[in-house]
UniProtKB/TrEMBL annotation:
InterPro entries with a match to the protein in the record: Rhodanese-like_dom, Rhodanese-like_dom_sf, Rhodanese_C, TrhO, TRHO_N
Name under which the protein is recorded: tRNA uridine(34) hydroxylase
GO molecular function: oxidoreductase activity, acting on paired donors, with incorporation or reduction of molecular oxygen; transferase activity
E.C. designation(s): 1.14.-.-
Domain Rhodanese: 147-237
Top class in the EC scheme: oxidoreductase
Ranges in coiled-coil conformation: none
Source organism, top-level taxon: Bacteria
Length: 312
């Protein structure tokens, strides 16, 4: 039987990927659908993805699949054809494609894991069925609704994501986790049950479930951006539309962010100068995620404080 997990240390894999100089695409996709045997599905995914030299994170559960990966550019068409025929539910699946313009090594290992949920929502209500979802809107419709002065945009990402970039006047549901947001969003937005609401997130997976939760709780006019921020930006560029998202889009890989506009709407924790560069404190026992400008990265040795700097 073939080995269906990585056998090489992450340190060695990281070294290997940095030695290669190949063009790679960054892909993300998800699909909510029932998987009867997630473990078997996971093993098939790992075996086939390995053949395409795919790196990144894939989560599989009874409720579907969620993936953030990179792939050699030359393998993309073959991989897409494979994915579309792998399972009927994945036929014509929307794949968010980003060109790795700066050739930054985003991932250096393939990890495919079975999870209880592909997105942990924390919903305990037994009456809730993830069935009815909000109406998809495209980039053109997003721009119209941003400018109509009536539609409410709700950011369904964590606060540290919102901090470095968001749509103008978007409502932040302050939280550190998606579970917290779903608990709070219904209470915070109670006044808007009859208003038009657009929910968005990075790639669409969180806001899709969030729209279903809002509809379940009596909200009448709920929309979400097809493909999330990534889908919006790609579609706006393709159709030569104005991109109204301000700042940077936080991403969960080695890059930490993608520049969307020239605006820098956040500031360095230490000197308060404009910056949208996230780092983890270099003192491993702290490792807190925070925004730090280039000068402070030098002065504080990538630490969040002089206290942590003492241990480096």
């Amino acid at each position: 039987m073939s080995i269906l997990h990585n056998q090489i240390s992450k340190k060695e894999l990281k070294k290997n990927i940095f030695l290669k100089n190949e063009s790679r695409l960054i892909l993300s996709f998800y699909k909510y659908f029932h998987i009867l045997e997630p473990k078997k599905f996971r093993d098939k995914i790992y075996k086939n993805f390995s053949q395409y030299n795919i790196l990144g994170r894939v989560y599989v559960s009874y409720e579907g699949i969620n993936a953030q990966i990179s792939i050699p550019t030359c393998m993309y068409i073959k991989f897409k054809n494979f994915l579309y025929t792998f399972n009927p539910a994945l036929n014509n699946l929307r794949i968010n494609v980003r060109f790795n313009i700066n050739n930054i090594n985003v991932f250096w290992v393939l990890s495919v894991k079975v999870k209880k949920y592909i997105v942990n929502d924390g919903i305990k209500n037994p009456l809730f069925k993830f069935k009815n979802i909000g109406t998809y809107i495209n980039a053109s419709e997003v721009n119209l609704m941003l400018n109509d002065g009536k539609t409410i945009f709700i950011d369904m990402r964590n606060s540290y994501e919102y901090k470095i970039g968001h749509f103008p006047n978007a409502v932040e549901i302050q939280s550190k986790t998606f579970r917290e947001q779903l608990k709070n969003v219904v209470k915070i937005m109670h006044y808007a049950k009859n208003k038009h609401i657009v929910m968005y997130c990075t790639g669409g997976i969180r806001c899709e479930k969030a729209t279903s939760w809002m509809i379940f709780n009596g909200f009448k006019h709920v929309y979400h951006i097809e493909g999330g921020i990534i889908g919006y930006v790609n579609q706006a560029k393709k159709n030569k539309l104005p991109i109204l998202f301000k700042g940077s889009n936080f991403v969960f890989d080695n890059r930490m962010k993608e520049k969307i506009s020239k605006d820098v709407i956040s500031s360095c924790k230490q000197c308060n100068q404009p910056s949208d560069d996230y780092v983890n404190c270099a003192f491993n026992l702290c490792h807190v995620l925070f925004i730090q400008c280039h000068n402070c990265q030098i002065n504080f040795k990538n630490c969040c404080s002089f206290t942590c700097m003492k241990y480096i």
